[in-house]
Each structure stands twice: as structure tokens, then as C-alpha cells.
Amino acid sequence: MRLLFASSEVFPLAKTGGLADVSASLPRALAALGHEVRIALPAYPAARAALVESRKLGPVPGLSGATLVGGRLPGTELPVVLVDAPALFERPGGPYGDASGRDWPDNARRFHGFARALCAIALDRAGLGWRPELVHCNDWQTGLVPALLSREAVRPATVFTIHNQAYQGLFDRAQFDALGLPDDWWAPDALEFYGGFSFLKAGLVFADQLTTVSPTYARQLLELEHGCRLDGLLRHRRADFSGILNGIDAEVWNPAADPHLASPYDRATVDAGKRANKAALQRELGLPEADKVPLLGLVGRLVEQKGIDLVVEVIEAWRDRPLQWVLLGGGEAAWERRLRALAAACPERVAVRIGYDEGLAHRIEAGADFFLMPSRFEPCGLNQMYSQRYGAIPVVHRTGGLADTVVDIFARPDPGSAATGLVFDEPTAVALAQALERGFSLYRNPAAWLALRRNAMAGDFSWRRSAEQYLGVYRRALAAGADPR
Length: 485
Description:
Blueprint: E1 2-6, H1 18-32, E2 36-42, H2 45-50, E3 52-59, E4 67-72, E5 79-84, H3 86-89, H4 107-122, E6 134-138, H5 144-149, E7 157-162, E8 170-171, H6 173-179, E9 192-193, E10 196-198, H7 199-206, E11 209-212, H8 215-221, H9 231-236, E12 241-243, H10 270-285, E13 295-299, H11 308-317, E14 324-329, H12 333-345, E15 350-354, H13 358-367, E16 370-373, H14 383-389, E17 393-397, H15 400-405, E18 422-424, H16 429-443, H17 446-457, H18 464-479
Parallel strand pairs: 1-2, 1-6, 2-5, 6-7, 7-11, 11-12, 13-14, 13-16, 14-15, 16-17, 17-18
Antiparallel strand pairs: 3-4, 4-5, 8-10, 9-10
């Protein structure tokens, strides 16, 4: 198949979270299965600077001042097309907001422009001489693409993937009118959404097939509690909706060949390898070198969805216990301040780095004994899969993809079983603390702890199986009646 993969972030060109990792590794897996894949994303300054073999391609019809830039994704042969629209994307800060984290006020205009450019590529109106059979769109930033393509007499098929339904691309009627969208889209069975309109809903209404990033999250999105007011629409489209578990890039996340680590290791050498990387991480972050003290790591957004409040509550309650905590991430300013204060008050126990550092993320996975993911909801999650590959035992709330990828050791207490981590049922600090206490009892038993680590590292979270499932979805989308001529 000829596939256009559209995303607002792709690692290493632009990254704020797991979407970027998926948008790099899934296209690679599809290409490895013999399909012709091109990736498209906005030409943020960092993306343009990192693109390999960059070259100008031509203007984007109907998008003033915009051109396309071609190149390759670093470290791969995958073709990339950047939508270079300086008025929309040439600005400091992140993909969606300024350096302080505030959303850009013109995000509707920015990602409407991106969608228009994607449609020009998909319909071969941008001079590339290439036309995909299918466009795979990801999250709200690409939600208008299936809607715009639906108005074409001849078009490629469309698939829309929900990576996190809580982020819906919500805007008001004035912005709807400013974009010049069709009047008949201001309706409950189109884009209108509780008095405003939603880019995400556009994808859910108009795409030929819908997916999300884990089977459990797919089931949860059909429920009132988790559906974010779109559960009724998804139930209506249940026959077109699939939950496919994300994979991980097993080459990038490989402790045996990870250039970020002080001491590479594999499943056979995990005991010595973890000790060496733990000591190196302690030195790097100014913590006392203490091999016998459990080191607990967290990498992620510092927001309540991710359960950062639960982690902070446990750290504060246990600040005098012989434990070490390493946290990397950014998010809400109040949580950033609180974590900095904890690190200042307990420098021998708590190390905090605000922001994102790819190398440090790898070193935390390699050096941590436990990896914390107490998310209140988690569509899929990747870090719990990275942690298993690195022998850092995940401690997770039973929700979404966390429930699909971590097997609780106390549900399968035989050390030779398939157990891979610690799972708790309620998103509370008490439940998290109880799970950790169970984990500490294993940590004090070297044979059981080593067996659990090796179980975790034996898992296969590569993309091949998931990529084959996506191909099944693509075939169903093509059979739905789109004409890719």
C-alpha cells in the first residue's frame, strides 16, 4: 500500500509525548512489511533543523506562504514531508503552546492549515507526483483531514487514531466561521460539540475506520465515565472502531545497545548491568551511591492524569525512609514547584529534573529498580513497556494500556510465571503505597527479584504484530468505498 502517515509530532523531529514515538516507530514497522510510507508533520524550527537530506519540494495550493520540504527521518530511510508555513509554525516554544505552556491562541488556524496541506498531498495537488491509497491521521491536530477529504469525489481512504481522547481540539463558533468551514458541519452529527466544535470529533465522524491505542482503552471509551462526552458517537461507530496496542521501537529502546547508558546489559546480565547503571545515575543526579536502597523512577507529564499527585503524597509521607526517587518531566507549574521543593528539602532522597531529556529518560529506565506509572487513565502508555525491557519493575494503576501490558506478580506469584510488575486497582496514594510495599518485599528477596526482572525483560512489545493489525484496519477502510485513483 501507499500510505501517508500524518501526525503533529514525530521523534526525533518533534516530541511532547508518546505520540511522537508511535509516529516514528509504526511507519518504520509498516515499511519493514513492504509498504510505501511517507510521514507528514509541521515544519517546526527544530523539525526543519533535524531533517536529513532536506530539500524544497514546492508550494501548497490554497495555503498562502506555505511550501513543502522533503527529507528523511534521522536514522531511517523513511521519507518525510514537512509543511513549512512560517506564519503558523515558525515560532519559539512547543508544537502547541509557548515556552510557558500556554496554548497558542491560533491553534485552530494552525492545524486547519496543516490539514489543508495534508489534503493537497493526499490528492496529489502539491506537485509531488505521488498519491497515497490511505491517509492515517493521529489525534485532534489531524482531525479535519478525514472531514475535508470526505467532500472529494475521488479520495484516499482514511483512518483516524485516538491517542488520548481527553485532548479534543475544542474551539468556539467564531473560530469555526473564521476557518470558512462548511455551514452544514455546524451540526451535532458533524463538528458541533456542546456549543463549540471539535477537531477530534471531525475525525471520529468522517474517517472510514477508527482506532485507539490499546484494547482496554477502546472498551473504556465506549463508557460514560471515560468517553469524554464522545462515548455515544463511538458506540454508534463501534463496528468501525478497533483497539490496537502500541508497540515500542526495540532498536531505540534496547539496553544491550543503548548509547545513552553507562553500562549496556541484557537479560542474562541484568543483575550486574542494573547495579552499574544505578550507580551511574546516582552520581549523575547527586544522590548517594547506595546499591541496596530501592530507587524509584518516573518519566512523564507532571499532571494529575498521570497520578503525579499520588506520587508526591507518597514521597512526602515516606521522606524519612531509605528510598531514592528520581523524577523527570514537565507539566503544571504547581507540581513542578512542589517537586523542586521536595528535592531541595531531601537532596539525598529526591532528584528532580524539569523538562524532557531523552538520554536521561533512558538512563532512568536503566538505573531504576521500580518505575512508577499510577495514571488515572492511560490510553496505552509506552514507558511501562520501556521499563520492562530495561528490567525496571513497573508499578501501575489497572487502566487502559497499563492493564494490557503489565501482569501483576501477586496475581501470578510463581517466580517462573509470566508476571512482569505490580498492579493496583484504585488510583489513590494508599493503593500505590500498598503496591510498593509488596514490591519492597520482593526486592529484599534477591532470587525472586532477579526472576521478576528477567520475566519483565522477556516480553515482546515490538511493532510487528500491531502493524499487521493496522494493515487489517487499512484494508477495511479501503473496502469502505474510498477511491484512491
